[in-house]
Amino acid sequence: MYEKLMSVGSRIEGVTLYLVNVDDMRKFSFGVWRNRQHVFAVVRTRNCAGYGENIISVNTPDIPLDEWKAHSRVFTGLTVGQAIRRLRTERDSWDCHYVEMLEMALIDLAGKELGCPAMSLFGFDDYANVDGVFVILDDDPEHVRALAREAAGSGMSKIVKVKLFGDEGLDLAIVESVRSVLSRTDTLLIGDVNTGYGREGEAADICAVSQTLRRLYDAGLDGCEDPAFLSVKQWTELQSMVDPLSLIPDYILRPSRRAIATVQSGMGKVFNIHPGSAGSVIDAIELARHIRAFGGELMVGDDSLIGPACTVWQQIAMVFRARWVEAVEKPRDSSFFRSCIVSINTDSLSNPVTYEPKTGGFGLILDEERLSAGCLSRAEV
Q: Fewer CB under 10 Å: which end of the chain, C or N?
């Protein structure tokens, strides 16, 4: 599979990992992120550099890079094609966040070495603009209302996503706060409960969940991501119970390679290809193909990514004609990353996100001196 990708013969001369800290509180139904730690990976041949990104930890600014550095050492001296093959053998043994990040960098590197867009290596040559999402992660309805006003003034109000918390009263207040500013005619409103209405290990009462979701729909919610931890059968039953609200499966699609064997039509209306937790870019692309084959709609989510991964997932969303993409560079969190950009193929500063092929691979080129000067730490092999 993907013979052209796997046949790239340029040899890897080194890998550098940059640890970047983001001090930004994010609230979820399962807990609070006070800060999070990202790794930007750079894989080099003699002539090119490929980039990847993933989160290595949350609330741990002093996280060591020793394990990810040890993994990276394996690839020095291998050809790019050999490195991709080797990495795929480690999907069950290495941290899936590392595997996804490094595979992303290797695909980028392969495209640059061949002088072609990365997605052409998977048979895609047609890119469509894709809508970005204004994401609100807050449990204060008044602050949610203020952020909805910000969305309205920013030109990013076509699709808005709110975090919901598994507390029906609070969740209704959040939805109502958004709808007091943004009408249903102008804004698609989606909510992510992160299984707040029924955790893993609990017996989800889908009748009770469906009643809550119907009330949220009546208040103005159009789609709901992961209302509870559900089986495939429960997803299908719940979707039929809450129509016309769109269910959006997420957790059950992770990692991508396992979801290919279980996902099926009727589990929801829109399926989340989830960056950061897919476990592999290649597997995520294959999962997206599979969902498209049975007629499912796609979205590309986010894992609070801020840097090199954003443009990658935007391009995947574009070639699959996804309904929306959440993995966009953040106005504040991505300011350091943006200061390091020399060239990039996607533009998420306006909505929708657009694509212009300037450079091979995924098209990103970074100023590594600036990146090195602003990161928390660096590991090189």
A: N
Q: With CA atoms as reference, report the closest residue to 277 among 313, 245, 234, 246.
A: 313
Look at residue 1 and tell me whether its pLDDT is greater than 70. no
- What's the token pair of residue 52? 């990847």
Name 292's Cβ contacts closer than 8 Å, sequence gap at least 6: 298, 320
Q: What is the pLDDT of residues 217-233, one digit of tens each?
A: 999 999 999 999 999 99
Q: What is the DSSP string of 5-34?
A: HHT--PBP-EEEEEEEEE---EEETTEEES
Return the SS3 of 62.
coil
Q: How far apart are CA 282 and CA 316, in angstroms?
A: 11
Peptide bond into 249 cis (omega under 30): no
- pTM for the structure as a whole: 0.95
Helix (H) or strand (E) holding 64: none
160-177 exposure pattern, b = at least 16 Cβ within 10 A, e = fewer:
bbbbbbbebebbbbbbbb
Find, among 5, 83, 8, the residue nearest to 41 by Cα.
Answer: 83
Report the SS3 class of residue 93: coil
Positive or negative torsion for Cα 189, 278, 61, 32: positive
